């Protein structure tokens, strides 16, 4: 039917934009995996106290950054940008997603720099114990992991939420269920792709006498190289996204068609005899 043809056309227009979210989310996945290993091989003491911050709880800083930023963005930033740009959301949805992509790249670069510093402390300075993986615990405070998590949390606030809003606004009413599931499909695909990528990096860098980037003991590996690699993928993904965004045309507002439907309904009701 004509409706099915239009639905397929709508889906084909959005798939290129959707595919950029898969590569993007690989960077977000890292805050739930290797950040935990970094925390385990860092000084997790809170200040001069004996309290140890649980390694698995560090991802909460990304969630806090996103939770705090969203109301600030909606209540303060958007109204000011709306006056400047005339856009309802301050900036377009694709621009919002693009900001998230840029922040993800910055977050990966910052992650690599912090990992270089953590590893340097573990190798060249006195350590404070041994991690469950068998590696030495760096004397660098694990609180230095917070900046990269905050940046990735802000990135998610821009891109992830921008994606969801983009799908809901660009799909027709009868495809809202597809719009709601598309983001989570991309996130799930990114998780599988991230696992496959880690396996490939393990095999390639650990071959022969090469130094495995993702060794169990981070001090013997080069996790910073892996972060730079993901940042490089993010740059390529950003270029691809900009090409797709330039090509993409937003769905036209339905206000005129809705007005036509309402006037037609009014005309039918006026001509229909009351029972």
Question: Could you characterize the architecture of this molecule?
Answer:
By secondary structure, this protein is an all-alpha fold. The protein has one domain (about 1-270): MFS general substrate transporter like domains (Growth Hormone, Chain: A, Up-down Bundle). It is about 70% helix and about 0% strand. The protein contains 8 helices and no strands. The chain has helices at about 1-30, 35-40, 60-85, 95-125, 145-170, 175-205, 225-245, 255-270. Helix 1 (about 1-30) crosses helix 6 (about 175-205), helix 4 (about 95-125) runs antiparallel to helix 5 (about 145-170) and helix 4 (about 95-125) runs antiparallel to helix 7. The longest helix has about 30 residues, at about 95-125. The radius of gyration is 24 Å and the shape is globular. The two termini are about 35 Å apart.
Give the topology.
Blueprint: H1 2-29, H2 34-40, H3 60-85, H4 93-124, H5 146-170, H6 176-205, H7 223-247, H8 255-271
Helix pairs in contact: 1-5, 1-6, 1-7, 3-5, 4-5, 4-7, 5-6
List key phrases describing it.
transmembrane helix; globular; transmembrane transporter activity; 8 helices; Growth Hormone, Chain: A; membrane; 275 residues; mainly alpha; transmembrane; disordered C terminus; MFS_trans_sf; single chain
Structural class, by secondary structure, is mainly alpha
What number of domains?
A: 1
Q: How large is the share of residues in beta strands?
A: under 5%
Q: Count of DSSP helices?
A: 8
Q: Which parts are unreliable, with pLDDT below 50 for 5 consecutive residues or more?
A: 254-275
Helix amount, in percent? 55-70%
Radius of gyration: 24 Å
Architecture in CATH?
Up-down Bundle
Tell me the total number of β-strands: 0
CATH topology: Growth Hormone, Chain: A
- Element order, helices and strands? HHHHHHHH
CATH class: Mainly Alpha
Termini separation comes to: 35 Å
Largest sheet: none
In CATH, the homologous superfamily goes by the name MFS general substrate transporter like domains
> Per the principal axes of the C-alpha atoms, what is the gross shape?
globular
What would the average pLDDT be, to the nearest integer?
85
């Amino acid at each position: 039917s004509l409706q099915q043809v239009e639905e397929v056309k709508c889906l084909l227009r959005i798939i290129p934009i959707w595919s950029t979210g898969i590569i993007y989310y690989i960077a977000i996945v890292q805050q739930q995996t290797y950040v935990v290993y970094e925390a385990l091989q860092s000084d997790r003491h809170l200040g001069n106290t004996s309290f140890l911050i649980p390694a698995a709880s560090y991802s909460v800083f990304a969630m806090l950054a996103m939770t705090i930023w969203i109301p600030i963005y909606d209540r303060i930033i958007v109204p000011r940008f709306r006056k400047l740009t005339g856009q309802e959301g301050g900036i377009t949805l694709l621009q919002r997603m693009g900001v998230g992509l840029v922040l993800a790249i910055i977050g990966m670069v910052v992650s690599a720099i912090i990992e270089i510093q953590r590893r340097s402390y573990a190798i060249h300075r006195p350590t404070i114990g041994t991690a469950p993986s068998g590696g030495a615990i760096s004397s660098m405070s694990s609180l230095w992991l917070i900046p990269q998590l905050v940046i990735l949390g802000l990135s998610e606030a821009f891109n992830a939420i921008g994606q969801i809003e983009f799908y809901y606004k660009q799909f027709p009413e009868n495809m809202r269920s597809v719009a709601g599931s598309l983001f989570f499909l991309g996130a799930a695909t990114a998780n599988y792709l991230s696992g496959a990528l880690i396996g490939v990096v393990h095999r390639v860098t650990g071959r022969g006498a090469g130094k495995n980037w993702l060794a169990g003991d981070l001090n013997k590996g080069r996790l910073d190289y892996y972060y730079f690699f993901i940042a490089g993928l993010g740059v390529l993904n950003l270029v691809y996204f900009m090409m797709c965004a330039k090509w993409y045309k937003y769905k036209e507002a339905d206000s005129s068609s809705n007005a036509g439907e309402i006037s037609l309904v009014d005309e039918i009701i006026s001509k229909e005899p009351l029972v």
